[in-house]
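1st attempt posting a full record on here, be nice pls
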Amino acid sequence: MNPGASAALARRVAGGLVAEGATELPITVDQTNHSVVVGESVVVKWLRSPAPPPHRGAQVLAHLAAVGFDEIPEFLGAPEVDGLVVAVLSAYVPGSRDGWDWYVDELTTAFERGDISPPIATATRIGALAARLHRALSTPSTVLPEPCGRATCDDEYRRGRELLDEAVRVTPGAAGERLAARAARLGDDIESLHAVGAIDIQPIHGDLHVGQLLRGGQSDGEILVTDFDGDPVTAPRDVGRAGVERRSAMVDLASLVQSVDHVARVVARWRPDLAEQVGPFVAGASDRVVEAYAELGTVDERVLKPLRAIQELHELVYAAQVLPRWRYAPDAALASLYP
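the predicted structure (as tokens):
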């Protein structure tokens, strides 16, 4: 990206927030797109491939703003060039870190102190936040006037079968042997999605994990949801009239629950001396995410466990294709789901 391009675009879209000569600071974590913080006030997320409108992430953000959901960084716009959306702009949240930083730190401290109640309480907050997000996503707006519908789980079943076959094929060594030993049980749970019939579908986040949760420096700071572009390796499912794919909200919940598990695996990876506390935390935190969600939304247990398993298969395939060192997390998580 040319120097000054992000600042120029931010001034055009959100001029009141960006001064002349504003600094540009690239966000260096791995991302599908390229993001730049301008003047410590605006995040310009350049799309790797400009897309025809409506852009999925921008449309969802506009919908959430229209229904008054404010637990996201403020959406500022999605400018177009030659009829294609080139970037998505949001307000910058100073001092914020994503959950792969703040939740890992919180859990490490809790393990060191021998008191997991604070990160369990955080799991409760996360579950409730997901329920509020889904309630907002399912609320009609001028952007998405008919967000909800009904569909079978056939797409999720097919995706699960494909991921199971692929994960078995590409997962090497001892992790591959452990997966093969569980493949029959995994297949049975995925097969059970056929018997569910029609379920509620709606717009979802599509890639909801702790890395999409921003938090300030204080331990009790506000938690915001970010990055609504969806999973870049997942094909769209049922598409509503407004063009946003619709899936079961349980897809998001499954991904979120498993990411909380992954936080504990990260801590154990870097601090093997704390590993014995992982099991009690994972059991308690996973339950609290689901229970807190159920207090505000509807949990469909028929599909949640199969979708949790499918999420881990997705992680194994991702590890094989992109990040081999990540394999330890889904390997351990599947062992916990299928002891």
